[in-house]
């Protein structure tokens, strides 16, 4: 699995050598995607890791762009995933998007039945991505924004793709609250552990750092340490809600409920893996230049 995420890093080092390429997958206990998708098909998890890692590094690069230009770049990648490979202008930005050019075909080769759904998830993320410079003063408003932009849709989508867990319309409705609660867990967990890194880095945007801790500091007039404790408490509360909703779903006696049980199990493994990696990874826990 590590070969997938490493391939993405090497690609960006070649295409954008002047950019400090920092892995989103490296950790002392293994590759992040192997930890998050422990029950996933190996080849699909390897490809998922490569695509996700490339997408996160791509986001790192375009975060410094003006909002309109960043949105255009996302639209370009979205069109590539739609199968329109020849609609980009020449230049370095095309090189930056070239890593996504064969993603669709490689996914379809591994899973012709499930890949159209996952490709749709990727395209929806790129369409909805909001890199605006809005300043958030309310934690609930911010959490709603952050749940979308933390990449939860991508991570949970690949969780389903790698494990062949696909929900029908009724199952999707039944699991909606659990899905939203899980997204909140990932958003707050990521913010809590990434704060020490983020506050030390320069940010080329007027809104400053995208993190729950400065939002809490401003909203409740708290110092940094108290705000960290506050966010930690919010995270634990979110985890408890997610866990309770998951247990409720596991207890359902419905036709086809085995699919829901597998979905809940896989989501809990994803949340645990994501949290464990965030708590131990060099990216968040060691100052990197």
TrEMBL record:
What Pfam families does this protein's entry cite? Terpene_syn_C_2
Q: Which InterPro entries match?
A: Isoprenoid_synthase_dom_sf (IPR008949)
By what name is this protein known?
Answer: Terpenoid synthase
């Amino acid at each position: 699995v590590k070969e997938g995420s490493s391939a993405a890093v090497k690609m960006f080092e070649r295409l954008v050598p002047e950019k400090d390429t920092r892995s989103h997958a490296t950790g002392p206990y293994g590759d992040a995607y192997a930890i998050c998708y422990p029950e996933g098909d190996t080849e699909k998890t390897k490809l998922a890791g490569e695509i996700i890692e490339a997408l996160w590094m791509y986001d790192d690069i375009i975060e410094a762009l003006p909002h309109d230009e960043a949105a255009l770049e996302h639209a370009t990648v979205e069109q590539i995933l739609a199968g329109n490979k020849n609609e980009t202008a020449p230049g370095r930005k095309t090189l930056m998007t070239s890593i996504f050019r064969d993603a669709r075909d490689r996914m379809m080769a591994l899973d012709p039945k499930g890949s159209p759904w996952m490709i749709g998830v990727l395209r929806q993320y790129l369409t909805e991505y909001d890199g605006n410079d809005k300043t958030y003063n309310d934690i609930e408003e911010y959490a709603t924004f952050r749940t979308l932009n933390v990449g939860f849709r991508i991570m949970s989508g690949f969780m389903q793709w790698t494990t062949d867990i696909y929900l029908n319309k009724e199952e999707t409705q039944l699991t909606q609250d659990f899905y939203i609660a899980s997204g909140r867990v990932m958003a707050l967990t990521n913010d809590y552990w990434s704060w020490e890194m983020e506050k030390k880095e320069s940010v080329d945007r007027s809104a400053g750092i995208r993190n729950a801790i400065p939002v809490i500091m401003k909203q409740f007039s708290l110092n940094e340490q108290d705000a960290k404790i506050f966010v930690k408490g919010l995270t634990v509360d979110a985890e408890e809600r997610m866990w309770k909703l998951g247990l409720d779903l596991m207890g359902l006696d419905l036709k086809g409920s085995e699919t829901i049980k597998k979905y809940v199990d896989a989501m809990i493994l994803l949340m645990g893996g994501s949290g464990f990696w965030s708590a131990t990874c060099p990216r968040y826990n060691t100052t990197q230049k």
